[in-house]
Design a protein that fits this description.
This protein is 16% helix and 29% strand. It is built from 4 helices and 40 strands.
């Protein structure tokens, strides 16, 4: 489909700067802009590209003021990145919607399926499963017994949901995600580790997105809970009995040990490791590759391993490269001091 700058601006309640009839049919990055595409400028460090991009329309923030002429037509909006997401969502919704039940899938006679759903080939749906209206289950998905899946959910190929787990409305689970595998629970008897049965489940509330190959373990007892609005990147491990607060986001390769509580609206960078049985205060921000071994307070900003306040981390980072030289100087000073002491003792 082709849209003009005026149509896009009307949809976004934005302001056109340039040719209102400029037309686009797809998207491109601003540094790789092509004719017939729409791009955006959200990060100031990419500002130089707006003066040379071949994209015909560029979304910019309302406060953007160019330093020199720009060939592209601009659409000013309060937040260019949010506006781009809105447009992409609109385009995504225009794509054909899959419906129907594949001939080569297995669905238990006791399963209850909603209206306007899609179940792809080679999918397994176990006993007493409930799947809500307009949900899409792509090929090769496994859904164990007694699983409940809400409305308008999307399970991409290869998702595995073990028995008794609960998925809310409007959730997206990407390929390879495993929900409800056994938690890592063992009891050591002499030199042998005995498995502790994991008798709980996983509850994923509404509007959650789970990245590819992310794993969320079932609880020993009770539930591992992923609360509404949580966004998990690829390759994340959430251990048994964790409680992840509303609107928390985690980048790839985060690992959260068992019985940890992460409160609402936290942000975790890539490869963060969080120890077990601790609490991360709401609105905490944890830098990439940090190691958390104790509770954090509300609004904490920490980084490093073990994690320390961000300001202290950056101060330490400045000092670290200087340590070898400081060590040599300290040794030299110590040698001079010993020689001076020796000389003074001889003079006495």
């Amino acid at each position: 489909m082709i849209f003009t700058a005026k149509q896009i601006a009307d949809f976004l309640h934005g302001e056109v700067i340039g040719d209102p009839n400029a037309a686009v049919s797809t998207f491109s990055k601003i540094e790789e802009g092509r004719p017939g595409t729409l791009s955006f400028l959200g990060n100031p460090k990419y500002t130089s590209y707006i003066y040379e991009t071949a994209a015909d329309i560029v979304l910019v923030n309302s406060d953007f003021v160019p330093d020199k002429p720009i060939r592209a037509t601009l659409i000013k909006v309060p937040n260019a990145y949010t506006a781009l997401a809105t447009l992409m969502s609109m385009v995504e919704q225009q794509r054909p919607v899959k419906e129907g039940i594949g001939e080569l899938c297995f669905i238990s006679p006791s399963a209850v399926l909603g209206e306007q759903i899609y179940v792809g080939e080679f999918t397994y749906v176990g006993d007493h499963v409930r799947i809500g209206d307009q949900s899409k289950i792509y090929p090769q998905v496994y859904i164990g017994d007694n699983v409940m899946i809400g409305k308008n959910c999307t399970l991409y190929p290869g998702v595995k949901i073990y028995h008794d787990c609960v998925i809310g409305d409007n959730c997206i689970l990407h390929g390879g995600a495993v929900i409800g595998a056994d938690g890592f629970g063992f009891s050591k008897q002499e030199e042998i580790y005995r498995k502790i049965p994991q008798m709980g489940n996983v509850i994923i509330e509404n509007d959650v997105e789970v990245g590819a190959n992310t794993t969320i373990d079932r609880a020993v007892m009770g539930s591992t809970i992923i609360r509404s609005g949580v966004k998990l990147d690829n390759l994340i491990q959430i251990a048994h009995n964790c409680d992840i607060g509303e609107n928390t986001v985690m980048a790839a390769q985060v690992g959260v040990a068992g019985s940890t509580k992460i409160e609402e609206s936290c942000v975790l960078g890539g490869q963060v490791g969080i120890g077990g049985h601790i609490t991360i205060g709401k609105k905490s921000q944890i830098g990439a590759q940090s190691g958390i071994i104790s509770n954090t307070k509300e609004g904490s900003e920490v980084m490093g391993s073990p994690a320390i306040p961000v300001k202290n981390f950056f101060r330490s980072s400045i000092i670290t490269p200087k340590l070898p030289d400081m060590y040599r100087r300290l040794n030299a000073m110590e040698k001079e001091l010993n020689e001076l002491k020796k000389k003074l003792s001889q003079d006495d």
